[in-house]
Design a protein that fits this description.
Layout (H helix, E strand, L loop, with lengths): L6 H7 E5 L4 E5 L3 E2 L1 H17 L3 E5 L5 E2 L1 H16 L3 E5 L6 H9 L2 H4 L1 E2 L15
Parallel strand pairs: 2-4, 3-5, 4-6, 6-7
Antiparallel strand pairs: 1-2
Length: 129
Amino acid sequence: MSIAFDHTAVDSLFTSTQADHAVIARVKCSNIRERQASVLEEGLGELARSNQGCVVLCVDQIQSATTSWISSLIELSDVCKAMGGFLEITGMSQAGPAFVHVMELCGAAGKLRMSDARIPLLPSARKAG
């Protein structure tokens, strides 16, 4: 059973584009609170399912986030691995210090695949995956 959600809300929080072997998503929201976290979790989960679990997530614009959202990223990484894919987090060196601190508190470095690769600016419109 498929659960529908508000694509307009998703589109306001991240952009995505298809690359060779993965979908690349960039979070546009600088402060991720509970509502944004919920919408991002659903949207990123849909991207993972439609791309065999191969997702690159650029977090360079994030200034702060809740620990629950970091936990959902760790869960999404596990889901991606189970599908034979990966979740790669990029842009940490450009992210805000509060976000980096929360990632450290949650032990994300030991649980998430991270790189400091710079992702070029993505189109402003979300493309279907």
